[in-house]
Amino acid sequence: MKEVGNIIPAMVDVTDYFPILNRQINGHKLVYLDSAATSQKPKSVIDCITKYYETSNANVLRSVHTLAEEATEEFEESRKKVAGFIHARYPQEIIFTRGCTESLNVIARAWGDKFLKSGDEIVLSPVEHHSNLIPWQQLAGRIGAHLRFIDLEEDGTITVDGARAQINSKTKIVALSAVSNVLGTINPIGDIARLAHEVGAIIVVDGAQSVPHQITDVQKWNIDFLAFSGHKMLGPTGIGILWGKKELLNAMDPVIFGGEMIEYVDRENATWAELPAKLEGGTPNIAGAIGLGAAVDYLEKIGMPRIEKHVRILAEEAYRRLSNIQDVTVYGPSSPHTGVVSFNIYNVHPHDVAQVLDSQGIAIRAGHHCAQPLMQWLGVIATARASFYLYNSSNDIDALVNAIEITKRYFKI
Length: 413
Known about the structure:
The chain has 2 domains: about 15-30 and about 305-410, Aspartate Aminotransferase, domain 1, CATH 3.90.1150; about 45-300, Type I PLP-dependent aspartate aminotransferase-like (Major domain) (Aspartate Aminotransferase, domain 2), CATH 3.40.640.10.
């Protein structure tokens, strides 16, 4: 007998504001449960990007003609919006990059290469996305540093005591995701930042899964660096943010050299411009930055406290309902649990699960989710993952549950 879940409406009129959600997939209404990979875009963001290209398309920070001045004003206004969104102290602390991955790589290169030495230690966790693991592996290999990993609890959570056991006088960097992209776990970032600072280390936070879904206050957390992507928070692809404390960014050397990041150049030498230009060499993704500003406007209009509550209720409801299905294993803690729910059906490969769900119009992700060390810890090669956002409702959970039952029947489970 079909279980009827709690009625949880979407936060927005998806048919009016998210055009793609009007699509039919294989004869079914699209149920989009892959927002952890990329979110869908509201019409206001799409229109903003179109308007820029139709009315103000020009390069920024260079020319003095009308179009260039308009583009520069919009570009810098977006920087201010993003700074306000994460409670940064200065807009100059916002560095536009191509994405969260590039932001983390820049930190590893521009800060790590300059300030770490052989024998220093970098503390990570086994839940990290490859983007917050491989740059530190490479840094450690270049300079002779060592990696240490925080032990996970039985349900995949990280505790302050677990972090304390790995952080010591040799620790120079602690790099953690605020929210796991596989388990939906919410890490105690503020408390771990305090531990890092007690031994003189910095803390780098991967906010790819947290910034879109919960209030982010870099000053309250007292972290040192934050990296996140625009495309997971209703913005366009190809735009990311590197935030850092101003004094740390000033101490870093550029890693991308070229146009507009210099103060003075002669045939033999160059000096660098002030922040943020120093770390934004070349023509930036102007439309992407402007579109991200529009996404921030949209999120703030709805309210991040409401979004955080909505996403958590949906994910915890999905966790509960999937856990009640025979032969389905759900990973991570039941609560607190935000954004994503990862699961497997007994004896069915996650890719096969995803294909059957797609035949029912349901979009999920299947694979190792760029988190192979976590898959190894879980003892699986891959999982299926449903991820939720403000445009999802309990109807989507109903559709997911029904499709899982169809999958079980198809594979005779």
